[in-house]
Inverse folding.
């Protein structure tokens, strides 16, 4: 049947070739390549690219194999495969394709350049980024806002904040993406600041850009709000945070998890646990990060019972805790001068509670507390459980011994 696709393609009957291709019960790399090559030879490169994009849904490796078999590759096909590599965590391979593209004397367009510049900083070194920047200037793309944003963001990712700021100040026209990048960049600078004064200056600059954004007619999006709330958290700027909260209410972004979580963190850092709790309850949906943020907020503000109860709620609804959640719970116990017994009051005879305590204490390398929990288990005659493994799914605990296949339900 693939042979028939090839025959129709060579006879310029691509509609028939497509019909045969669609009827194929199993489409391998050869079939995809035959169809794409047919469109290329029939002067329909845009359709060939759309076929390649369809193939990406069946797997990047197969799509790459098909791409490599295309005899005549143009800027669209090169850009598509480069972008696909970047989107599928194959940045190094994407950069190799970019190098091959230049070696084939195919001139990149703005979409090619932005795809390359958006590669992760761990792969795209500053030297490579600088060469791409020079190439964009040589090709006349320097005034292009997409290119400028990509270069500026590259500088931010690589920690070159002064270079990013210089590029930002030189922009006559800038969009929301540009301003969002700089606000987030200054937030990163605060985290890396050597002293409080430097952190304060960076935070103030971020607030100034946010003010400029609001006064320029741009509408902040969820990335704007989450970034600027993080800045307010680090500055302990409750007044500015409240003003931003008022804007969030007007725009309807409070329903976004990332914004709601940032708001919880902001109120917590500013010492207003009541408003943090209110913001948490107003969230329409919550992630593990949201739950952990609220548990940590309660713990840091001395409300250990609320933190422990919220931790129990996460277990009841099937939220899988991580090490950061455990640290928050341990912090709650520590603030109230409590130990394992306090957490065990929630479910004193629940095997999973003991396992969670052991996991938390081991994560924190609190070996004396590990010993205490084991002693409690012996007192409860649960010592046999210590040699068992556990898998928690929603409200059930699945337990099994290492040498057994049979699983018992808790």
């Amino acid at each position: 049947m693939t042979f028939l696709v090839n025959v129709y393609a060579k006879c310029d009957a691509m509609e028939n070739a497509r019909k045969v291709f669609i009827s194929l019960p199993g489409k391998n790399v050869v079939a995809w390549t035959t169809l794409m090559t047919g469109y290329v030879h029939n002067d329909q490169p845009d359709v060939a690219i759309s076929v390649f994009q369809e193939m990406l849904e069946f797997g990047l490796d197969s799509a790459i194999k098909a791409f490599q078999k295309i005899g005549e590759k143009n800027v669209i096909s090169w850009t598509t495969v480069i972008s696909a590599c970047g989107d599928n965590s194959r940045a190094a391979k994407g950069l190799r394709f970019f190098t091959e593209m230049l070696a084939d004397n195919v001139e990149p367009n703005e979409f090619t350049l932005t795809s390359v510049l958006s590669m992760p900083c761990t792969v795209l070194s500053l030297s490579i980024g600088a060469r791409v920047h020079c190439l964009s200037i040589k090709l006349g793309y320097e005034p292009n806002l997409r290119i400028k944003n990509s270069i500026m963001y590259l500088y931010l990712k690589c920690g070159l904040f002064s270079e990013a700021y210089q590029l930002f100040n030189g922009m006559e026209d800038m969009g929301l993406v540009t301003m969002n990048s700089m606000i987030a960049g200054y937030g990163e600078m605060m985290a890396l600041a050597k002293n409080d004064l430097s952190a304060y200056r960076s935070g103030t600059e971020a607030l100034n850009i946010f003010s400029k954004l609001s006064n320029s007619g741009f509408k902040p999006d969820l990335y704007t709000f989450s970034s600027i709330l993080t800045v307010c958290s680090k500055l302990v700027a409750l007044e500015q945070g409240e003003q931003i909260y008022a804007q969030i209410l007007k725009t309807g972004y409070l329903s976004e998890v990332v914004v709601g979580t940032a708001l919880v963190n902001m109120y917590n850092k500013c010492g207003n646990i009541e408003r943090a709790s209110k913001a948490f309850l107003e969230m329409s949906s919550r992630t593990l990060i949201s739950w952990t943020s609220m548990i940590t907020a309660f713990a840091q503000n001395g409300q250990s019972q609320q933190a422990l109860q919220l931790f129990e709620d996460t277990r009841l609804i099937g939220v899988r805790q991580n090490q950061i959640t455990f640290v928050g719970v341990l912090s709650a116990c520590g603030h109230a001068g409590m130990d394992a017994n306090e957490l065990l009051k929630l479910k004193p005879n629940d095997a999973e509670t003991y396992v969670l305590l052991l996991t938390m204490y081991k994560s924190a390398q609190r070996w004396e507390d590990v010993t205490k929990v084991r002693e409690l288990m012996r007192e409860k005659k649960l010592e046999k459980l210590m040699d068992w493994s556990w898998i928690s799914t929603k409200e059930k605990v699945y337990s099994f011994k290492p040498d057994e296949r049979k699983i018992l339900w808790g």
